[in-house]
Amino acid sequence: MWTLPNILTMSRIFVIPVLILSFYMDQPLGSHVAFVIFAMAGFTDFFDGYLARKTGSTSKIGVFLDPIADKLMVAAVIIMVVSIGWVSGYHVIAAVIIMCRELLVSGLREFLAGTNVSVPVTWAAKWKTTVQMVALGALCWTKGAPEFGLPALEVGLICLWIAAVLTIYTGYDYLRSGLKHML
């Protein structure tokens, strides 16, 4: 049960409170901390699956926890960047689209699992996740990156909208595939 991949997955869940606290720290230090935590979480997300497959140590708990850890991390960042105003105005629409898709696909996967049907991850969904992670990482670094002359907020907002568009496409694709098993 406590394999290295599972520990990496659990680490993403356990650092969420620290990530949330970093948004309340003095800036730009808090932004640097948020960015580092989010980036490390992204690396653990890649490596936990890679190591599990490479070592043959995939487990039911890992399969269960990995998407939960991902969604909790994404939700925490979206909630924080919106609540503190780093994402505001009409950009909140993109954030809400992403949150709605995360909930929709989670519910769909849970329903389909009960019918012994799995929905494979598509390449479009992998691109969506990549762009979304770049967006959220950049948004975490909104107050820190300007020290280095980097436009994190602008990059984050552009990628957030690209992720929202990909989210609609992939969400529709998953829903269309899932409806075949619901009707």
From TrEMBL:
It is a multi-pass membrane protein. Its EC number is 2.7.8.5. GO terms for molecular function: CDP-diacylglycerol-glycerol-3-phosphate 3-phosphatidyltransferase activity. One of its GO terms (biological process) is glycerophospholipid biosynthetic process. It catalyses: a CDP-1,2-diacyl-sn-glycerol + sn-glycerol 3-phosphate = a 1,2-diacyl-sn-glycero-3-phospho-(1'-sn-glycero-3'-phosphate) + CMP + H(+). GO terms for cellular component: membrane. It is an enzyme of class 2 (transferase). It is found in: Membrane. Its main location: membrane. Keywords: Lipid biosynthesis, Lipid metabolism, Membrane, Phospholipid biosynthesis, Phospholipid metabolism, Transferase, Transmembrane, Transmembrane helix. Pathway: Phospholipid metabolism; phosphatidylglycerol biosynthesis; phosphatidylglycerol from CDP-diacylglycerol: step 1/2; Lipid metabolism. Pfam families: CDP-OH_P_transf. Gene3D superfamilies: 1.20.120.1760. The chain crosses the membrane at residues 7-25, 31-51, 72-99, 155-175. NCBIfam families: pgsA. Belongs to the CDP-alcohol phosphatidyltransferase class-I family. This is CDP-diacylglycerol--glycerol-3-phosphate 3-phosphatidyltransferase. It comes from Kordiimonas sediminis.
